[in-house]
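Quick log. Single chain, no ligands specified.
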Amino acid sequence: AYFDVPSDVLGPRYEIENAYYFDKPETGERYEFYAGAIAGSGDDDTAQGVLILQIMRVADRDGVPYGELVETREYLTENKVGPLRVDGSDYLGGETSIQLYTSLYFIWRYFPQYDEMSPAKIPPLARLEIDSNRQLAERGSFCWQGGCADGPTISTSAKPLVTQSPIIAHLHLPLKEPPYSLGLYVMFVSPPGILQDDFPYDYIHEDDASWSYEKPGRERLYLGAFPLKSDQDIKLSFEPGYYVLIVRAFWHDYGDVEYGFLIEIQE
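-> predicted structure:
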């Protein structure tokens, strides 16, 4: 379960984002996980992420049970990509793991059985900014450090970035290393007003939406290659309506990924 703690709960060395625990009744132990960053090490994209594990054991003192701190462990992420947050526990390959993520969804998993924290083979997310509003990408097909996913759809936020044409959008890629290739596509998905009235999403779940490439009338138009930079402005011009922007990026040391963004062009 999650539990609320102040950011300085572990002292001035850490800035804690959230906390999570699980109990092991067979041993009487409680595993408490505190996720965050080293204090003062950077912002949401550059801070040194840290996971603190405290192992507690129920002891008896004059017939009264109390929690005794057995051990404290510190784990640092290998790259400085922002504070960590705990995303709960799950079962991966039949084993319990604690999932952690940053604001751009660099993801790690901690396995209590092996006392090991390792990065997940899932690409972190890009970000698009238009008129001071931000949208975090969703993923389409990717192959990333040996982990792959493929399919005829692209995912986006369910809530579009609203603007007027022409557009000046700022694209932020999650890696400091510039990509080896970077291209942009656009797919028209709905005329003005239809998105709110008729919900022409192919699939929608909470804040995420998916759009099929195979739906009649859909076509991905290639807008060309872009400078190989992690941060840059993109200038575009579209007629009013709803569009999915698809960014395809490839890094030699990591792999390739499609990022999807949803924008609304108003009159």
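The radius of gyration is 22 Å.
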